[in-house]
């Protein structure tokens, strides 16, 4: 969420088109588990990136509804010692670097695009983001992008207003923004509802933070606009957790990227590749 911005109230948008998946769950996505709805909220009340009052984001990899409780049989095995997980340095690694067995087990077996957001530590609000794509034999990494997360860092038990970003694995199924669709393959909702004003935690202007948005499927219903306020887990568990444009300050729970990098991400994400985001502090993701 932008430095914790809230979007204007907006009624749920009707879903149409085969591009929208019926259900993709939030944290620890469980294959076949229905994804939950989400949120956003009003004006520029600075309360939770795409959410409004009570729109935090829930961090627990199971609370959001589609959390994987057990390691997947499809989870890749750790590679042998050596370069690139036991593979020649010129080949894509068999497993995504920096992710431990528990985290890898949360990634659905059919996911072929994974955005990894790694925080510096549990209480830091600076992080990095990398888009990985499975080549058929290994994971190929894109460029490393600087990113920001919530003011107080990360948590695996997120509640509205805690100013921490949720740790977990979440599907990415819907996008939108104040600006016209740049050519996204995810369903894109162009709306004035993404307009925001005011200032962030460090006095930085929030305007333009929601020019481009990708909804993180935490406590939301996939197949709806990021502006949809439905929260399956309840408002107290937060919501409106997005990937959005960086405003040069920490967020209320979202992850933010530079504008060009957000546009690049929008153009790259492909629903046919079942994209997910893996997010958290480095130590937690190594588990």
UniProtKB/TrEMBL annotation:
It comes from the Bacteria. Residues 57-71 have a biased composition (Basic and acidic residues). Residues 73-89 have a biased composition (Low complexity). Residues 1-26, 52-93 are annotated as: Disordered. This is Lipoprotein.
